[in-house]
Amino acid sequence: MKDRQSDLCSKYIKIFIVVSCYWIVSIATVFVNKSLLSSQSVNLEAPLFITWFQCVVSFTICFTLSKTGGIPGIFNFPIGTPWSKDIVGKVIPLSIMFTLMIATNNLCLKYVGVSFYYIGRSLTTVFNVIFSWILLRQVTSHRCVLCCGFIIFGFYLGVDQEHLLGSFSLIGTIYGVVGSLMLSLYSIYTKKILPIVNQEVWLLSYYNNAYSIILFLPLIVLNGEVDVLLNYNNFNSTYFWIQMVIGGFCGFAIGYVTSMQIKVTSPLTHNISGTAKACAQTVIATQWYNESKNCLWWTSNIIVLASSALYARFKQVEMEKNSRKLIPEEEKSLM
C-alpha cells in the first residue's frame, strides 16, 4: 500500500512539474515574441524574418537531436530525414499550412496586445467544427455548436470593447482570424500526415521547420522586409542576437512541453490547462503593461474561456461515450 501511495505521489508530482513547465514556457514564449516583434529595444520591422529565424533555431536543435539520437535518459529522437523525395511530396502541403499558421500568429501578436491575443485567435474551435464537417463529414453535437456560438459572441464582444478602449487593431485581428483558420486546417491535416511519419510528432516538427526555412524566404521578399533588413543597424548587437536565440529556443521548447503535457495527462487536460493558462496570461499582461480594462472586456474573455473549456469537456464526454458502445457480434467474432 505504501509503495502504491508513493508511486501515486510521484505521478502527481511529475504531472505538476510538467504542467507548470508548460505554463511557464508558453507564457514566456508569448511575451518574448511580443518583445521581439514590437519593442523599441529590437525595433526591427521584419516579423517574418524573426519568425524565420525561430524556425532556423528549431531546425538546428532537431537536426542535432537527430544526429545524437535524442537526450539520454529523457527521450529518444526518431530517425528520419526531411530531404527524402517521397517525404517532401507528402508533407510539404502540411508544411505550407504550418508556415502560414506561425507567420499569421506572430503578425497578429505584433499588432495586438498580449491581453487581447487570446481573443484575437479564439475562433480556432469554430473553424475546427466547420472544416471537420466540410472535409471529414464529421457531425458536431448541438451543445458543442452552442459553445461555438458563445465563442463567436465573446469574440465579437471583445473586439467591440477593444475598439471602445482605443486599442483595437483591425489588421492584427484579421491576422488572428487567419491564424485561427490555418491552425484548424493544420490540426485536421496533421491527422492524415502523422501515419506517414509513423505517428512521430517530433519527426513532423523536424520536417515542418526544415521546409518552413525555405517557404519563408519568398514571403519575406513579398512582405518588403529585404530593404528593412539591409538598413537595420543592430545586427552587430549581442543583445539583439541573444533575444533572437531565446525566441528560437522558446519556439522549440513550447512544442516539447506541449507534447509532454499531453503525454502525462490527456488531450482534455491539455485543453483545459491551455484555457486556464490563457486566462492567467491575460491577467499578467494587463498588469505587466499597466492596461485598464472595463467589465464588458473581461466578460468577453470569460465567455470565450468558459465556452472553450465546455466545448473540450463535451467532446471528451462524447468520445468516451462512443468508445463504450458495444461491439456488434459480427465484429466480435472477427476480432
UniProtKB/TrEMBL annotation:
**How does the protein's chain sit in the membrane according to the entry?**
Multi-pass membrane protein
Sorted alphabetically, which SUPFAM superfamilies does this protein's record hold? Multidrug resistance efflux transporter EmrE
Q: Which domain of life is it from?
A: Eukaryota
Compartment(s) where it occurs, according to its Swiss-Prot or TrEMBL record: Membrane
Q: Which residues form the Sugar phosphate transporter domain?
A: 14-279
Q: Does the keyword Disulfide bond apply?
A: no
Keywords linked to the UniProt accession: Membrane, Transmembrane, Transmembrane helix
Q: Which residues form the signal peptide?
A: none
The UniProt transmembrane annotation reads: 12-32, 44-66, 87-104, 116-136, 143-159, 165-189, 201-220, 240-258
What InterPro entries would the database entry show? EmrE-like, Sugar_P_trans_dom, TPT_transporter
Which protein are we looking at?
GDP-fucose transporter 1
Gene this chain is encoded by: Nac
